[in-house]
Amino acid sequence: MRKRQSNNGYGFAIILTLILGRANAGIFNDSNRGWFFYESKPVIESVQVESKPIKQLTPGEKASQELEQLQKQLKEASALALLYPTPENVWNYQQLKTKIYDMSGVLTDQQVRNDWSRPDSYSANNPTGGEGLEINRKEQNACTADLIRQSGYTYGLYLFTSANCKYCDAQVNVLKKVSTAYGVSSMVVSFDGSRPNNLDDIPFGQDKGIMSKKFNVINEGKPVTVMFNIKTGQSQVLGYGYIPLDQVNNRICRFYTKQLGEF
Fold first, then answer.
1. pLDDT at 173
2. What residue ranges do the domains of the chain occupy?
């Protein structure tokens, strides 16, 4: 009888183990035990993280940043020297200014060297002295003569003068030369009724506020030279103050034969 009970006890234990094993399968199955229940750790795939490329500054951007930093340093040094003029602050400001002056000197020197060495530079095409300048003056004179000749002598020159004018008599002499050389009809108009002493055969008239308003010029105690198209009624102020003959030619040529910005 006891033997049977013993066998029954073993059977009961086996049955109980099977029941418990099935009941707890959801808790202790392999998928829920974690990697530490396995003989080796499972392989975890690495995720590739793309690094953002570092932006490379262009030479212009780099130079711009350096210039901003230099301007900041100069502003701070200037403020310190002005508000707290200790020997050290003033000296630091002087040193920084000297550095900037040196940089400006290098820039200026390079500009001059470029101007000398390039065929398209300003100085290569516009002589500033000697025989080259004389050639340019002759071309300007020819330009003025051709302009007046081709236009059928439709241009006239008006010279506005006044009693308190330092250079008016000198400008009257220039007006006479232009009139003689190019056959341009000329007239002297007085702002205040005063008559220049060297008119000779140049016609004279008084402004009385009429001509000056028409040509939009004012009395500043300086001669005012105006070119006037007799046929179209259009006018062009050549300038205030004394204008030598070659400059009168230059301005007439510039205003009437070249576009803005053309040299």
1. 96
2. 67-117, 135-257
